[in-house]
Amino acid sequence: MWTYLWQNFLIDTKIRSYIADKISALYKELWCEALIEIWPGKWSITKLIQTISPHFFMIDKDPTFRDNWQLNIEYGEFILSDVLDLDVEMMLKEKKLNPEKTLVVGNLPYYITSPILRKFFGWKNFVWWLFMVQDEVGQKIKSDAKKKSYLRWLLNYWCTVTYLKWVPAKCFKPAPKVKSCLIELRIKDEELKINWEKFIEFLELFAPFSRKTLWAIQKMIQKKSEISFKIPSALLSKRLESLSWDELTVILAHKA
Q1: 238 DSSP 8-state letter
Q2: Residue 149: helix, strand or coil by DSSP?
Q3: Is the pTM of this model over 0.70?
Q4: How far apart are the C-alpha atoms of 65 and 67, rounded to whole Å?
């Protein structure tokens, strides 16, 4: 018997083919040597991509999927583990595979999307690409989002996040109560000229009060924290969600 773990399984054949074709094209384009699928579920995508790479890994924590995978999948290795606990980078290195040439894909359960992305966003040495996520999340984390959330800032530090395609609820079983979408994450060719440690310090201080102006937040945190940033007067009336990377660079350069 299949267990669900709050997953919604993709059943639409056109969307499955679209995803498989995208994965195959990207794998070849980037000269990858390994492919990882997170939460393969009932193998709807797995069956279509299992021959793309000679080093194909499926990661899932549900033992019933492990018990059934050999009946459905001819190629690849199933790894029974919670992806949040697994050191994927170490696993690849032990197999003498290069994380920089690894493509990671998955239909992420919505309740765990944010923790997974938070874990992986710092793995700038990985080739990231295709994920199925809640549409609301995809709209908020894409690179051209007008309002920038904490997660959006983190992901876009290393990656360019592109909203690819809206996916209707009827494409899943059971049908979710929310809209879904496909997003693409590609590691940026050039790193931002922003200090990572200062960047994280700033986000941790200012992001919890994102609806307030930088001036109001600065007044609040000066009373509670020894860490402070000198906000240029021209930016004091802005909110964190509306800053540009250039404006953020100016702020971080004036850490008090």
Answers
A1: -
A2: coil
A3: yes
A4: 5
What is the Cα–Cα distance from 225 to 231, expressed in whole angstroms?
Answer: 16
DSSP letter for each residue of 69-80? HHHH-SSSEEEE
Report CA 2 to chain centroid distance, whole Å. 26
Q: What is the 3-state secondary structure (H, E, C) of 150-211?
A: HHHHHHHHHEEEEEEEEECHHHEECCCCCCEEEEEEEECCCCCCCCHHHHHHHHHHHHHHCC
Q: Which residue has the tokens 């094209």?
A: 25
pLDDT in tens, 94-114: 999 998 899 999 887 777 888
Strands 34-38 and 102-107, how do they pair? parallel
The structure tokens listed for 153 are 């800032």
Who has greater pLDDT, 250 or 41? 250
Tokens at 133, concatenated: 């996520």
